[in-house]
Amino acid sequence: MNMLLLTSKITDNAYNVRDRQLRHLLDVHKAELGDSVKVGHINGLMGTGTIVKLDNEQATLMLDLTQNPPPPLPLTLLLALPRPKMLRRTLQTIAAMGVKKLYLINSSRVEKSFWQSPFLTPDAIEEQLVLGLEQSRDTLLPEVHLRKLFKPFVEDELPSLIKGTSSLVAHPDTEENCPVNTFDKTTLAIGPEGGFIPYEIDKLVAIGFKAVHLGPRILRVENAVPSIISRLFPS
Amino acid sequence: MNMLLLTSKITDNAYNVRDRQLRHLLDVHKAELGDSVKVGHINGLMGTGTIVKLDNEQATLMLDLTQNPPPPLPLTLLLALPRPKMLRRTLQTIAAMGVKKLYLINSSRVEKSFWQSPFLTPDAIEEQLVLGLEQSRDTLLPEVHLRKLFKPFVEDELPSLIKGTSSLVAHPDTEENCPVNTFDKTTLAIGPEGGFIPYEIDKLVAIGFKAVHLGPRILRVENAVPSIISRLFPS
Fold it and tell me: Nearest to residue A69, comparing CAs of A133, A125, A7?
């Protein structure tokens, strides 16, 4: 964690830190009274918090928040729902990379059971996103949408979502290279392990997606996400 | 796994698969007699293997290997030794991304205990590299070198290692962008969680490294590695 992300309301420029974040302050930072730590307020400014009261139950921080969070990526990411074990890490990764809009979608190769994962509740999702933002020092919480049916999502909702964006689908079986350093608003679809099936690629291409590849190697979703994002957008 | 990597000698174009790889064939691929699967021979060619004998102990594959593995990245990666839990995943990642030369190095922020990890034995390292190659469909096993002392490595060994290469160190506190789509032979150093300390950056810069950043967000090593590699080299 490189910043404490404060997720509740701030009152009189003060904030009480408890539980996981308090443990982190005490056990990892070895924080003491008077220390300053990097903090940010969810969907707000970043800066420092000075510990003005400290016991085993809570730390009270006096806040000085003046800095804007890093600019969001101009990206909507569509990701075939990963297996639960991978899901949590992937949510941290997308938050840490600066993605602000994520659709977890279905695909023929997504196992039905993945949709039953307890890690898909709003609280469980937010927990992982917060960890990603704390890692990367950012405050803007990504929106996460779940779409359990591929066809109605692609036919009914996606055409208006991609309007005005460059729409790409990562796909090994194409000659087209992934664009580099674009400033375009982009919609990017990444398939499951084993890839989207041809029917799904065809449906995406039919509404305007372009299939692009990432090189001769097949990457797992956890490597594909940072790889593509890092090629697409200037750092 | 997208390919079986055969790590022993091939005799008369046949190969016997056992243990983990046999289980994968049976449990995940539901392989049957006569099926063909993608295979590659370690440090050699790729192609298909047809199952000509199959029982619960082993599968015998008749091989047809004609395809070259993907070209190696022109990269030597220096990575501050990650914590053991992260190390295994990182080894898979570097193998999957096409890195062929890795130095795991010390840094002030690497905990001494990390060097005691049982995952640093040659066999344990190879096991993770093989998994990465099987994921990405590649056969060239990366070389992995361990360097437990930062200063002698940087002073005595690194100057000749970086000769003729573009030498970069990932560092958040710099204005310099990471190059994109280079064809240069490159040496890239990535620090530990929390980054290299200023003394270490200075030592690297003194022998010719250039500090480059990857954007306003701080990435964990597992995301930094694919992000930087993917920016540096054309896909």
Answer: A133
